[in-house]
Structure formats: structure tokens, C-alpha cells
Write a structure and sequence with these properties.
This protein is of the alpha/beta class. The chain is built from 13 helices and 13 strands. Helix 1 crosses helix 13.
Length: 376
Amino acid sequence: MARDLVVFGEDWGAHPSSTQHIVRRLAADRRVVWVNSIGLRRPRLDARDLGRIVRKARAIVAGPQGPREARAPTPDTLSVVSPLAAPWPGSALANAFNRQALGAQVRRALAREGLRDPVLWTSLPTAAPLLGALGERGVVYYCGDDFGALAGVDHAPVLRMERDLVLRADLVLAASDELAARFPAHKTRLAPHGVDVDLFGAPAPAPQDLPAGKPVAGFYGSLADWIDVDMLASAARSMPDWNFVLIGPVQTDIAPLQGMANVRLLGPRPHADLPGYVQNWTVSLLPFRDNAQIRACNPLKLREYLAAGAPIAATPFPALAPYEALLSVAHSPAAFASAIRIAAEDGGRNAARRARVAEESWDARAAAVSHALEAL
């Protein structure tokens, strides 16, 4: 019988992470209690964090499933806990409070859902204080990011929590070779990201806000510190005959892009709407900086771009290597505009790009993870 799970991840219903993709499929034959994010840094007194605190408080008041307007489609076998927790990594007082208060909250949820002896799965090192407090029969650490380089993280205390978590984990699942190499080989397995082949492969109409009349170079994802904004701005300036469409929340300084007539900032879009953009713009972009976070990453959008078929222009990073022959890679910022134009001539290999990831679905990834769980 498949083992039930208690999962510590990001907020359920946010833009889906690899954890959500996998756990949604694992929930097909097991019960899951999902605990929303308990944070990776102490809060700051700014508008963004104060707004997050208000949303968290509303979710706690709304009850076990959180506020109705924030929910994503949720499997019947999965229930969501909005945690009563102190987001202060490295604080002994916060750790003790979380173990006591959040531990009691999660145990009530487990009892309510009839879960006994679950496997504890965490994608966040900050869940380490809960180990041993939930009657778990095993511990899985799913590592999808380099928490020593990830923006928006209190690096030193989170890495200390990660070391404790890895020491006590029965199984470590790592999303990239670079991450896997950091953990004990005898209990670490590579768990590369997958893709929703059906969603991104099925033909989708062009959205109304996708500009027409010129070729389009497009990107979706957070506009954050790991995006080379200066490189994008330089490419857009040198390509006035193209439109650049950027989809996602702005989390870094984008001043170099503002005011450019051929740059469109569309803001976030639902995940289910993204295939319409990717399939109908000319070239998909992966404009990453070369830093520790990117060298360890395995971005979901890479396989989603491939499953949609459209040509891709990218900067180099390790996870790109197995697919590099199907992309146009710029090995310097100055070469990015040329890489986009070269990619635009590569429409004849759309079917080859789709075929390359056809066997890398989230269903296949979840089946491999399920087998690893049952082997604990």
C-alpha cells in the first residue's frame, strides 16, 4: 500500500513548483497533508512582507483549506494546512515555537484526515525542527534549489538547517547533478524535473495580449536577480524589428527595460495559460546570469519550452547540456541578440524538441519517486 505523506512546501496553489507537480500525482493513490510555506527568511517591515503576513493570517482564520479565493484545484486526497509558525530561520526560540505550535497543528490535521505513521517530505530546510514531532516513519528531503545562493533566503541559518535535515533524512531527492553531488551518495537519488507534456503539447490559441506584426521573443517566470536584465535590454535595443514579451512578477530592478517601445511587461499569468504564449511567440528565452544559483538549477520552463516545440535562445548553464543541440546558445551577453535570430530560423525542428521530452513527463517522474518512497 502506498505510504501517506505530510509535505512541507511552498503555498499550495501558487505557481506550481516541482514539488506540487509530483505530489499532485502521488496523491492519486495516497493521502497527503500539505503544509504551506513556513518561510526561508525572517520578515522585513516592507509592503511586500506585510502583505504576505496578512494573507497568511487570513489563511489561518479561513480554516484547514485556506482562503477559498487562493485555492488551486486540489485532489480529494490532499488537505492543506495554513501554518501557525514563526518565520525566523536560525532562531532557537522560533524553532521551539514551531516544533510545539506547528507540530500540534499538523498532528491535529493528521488525526482529522486519518493519517498514521506518514512519511515526512520537506522541500524546505526550515521544516527541520519538526522532525520527530509528527510520528513519521521516514523523512524525505526534496532539494530543488541551492539554498546557499537562492535569492530571498537567510543563507547561513537555512544551510545549517539543511545540514541537520540531510543528516536525519532517510532519502534525499535532488533535482540536478550539481545538487546531488553535495549530499551523501548512499541516500541520494537524482530526481530531475518533468513537464506536463499534454498541457504544453496540445495546440493553444494565441492570447489577445500577445503583440502581432513583428516576431516575438518571449520569457515567462520571475523577473528576479538571476535574470540578466542588461543583456535583455541590449538585445531589445539592437532588435527594433522584434517585440520582447516578459511574463511574470517583477522582483528586481528592471529600469533598463522600462520605456522601451518593443518591450512588453505583461505581469503574471496562470500556469494553464502559458502554452498559448509559448506556442505562438517566435523564440522562447532563457536569459540567465552565470551564478551559483543558476549553475545548480534545473528550470521547469526549459522542458516546458521544449514540449511546446518553439525555438529557444539561451545562455549556458549545466542543466542545458542534454538539450543543447536543440537550442541556440549565446556564450556571451553580446551574442544573445544573434542567438535569438539564429533560433528564429530553427522552426523546422519543433517536432524534434517535443519528442526530446516526450518521456520526461511529471507522471513518469512521480512514478520513479513513488518507487523510491516504497523502498524506504
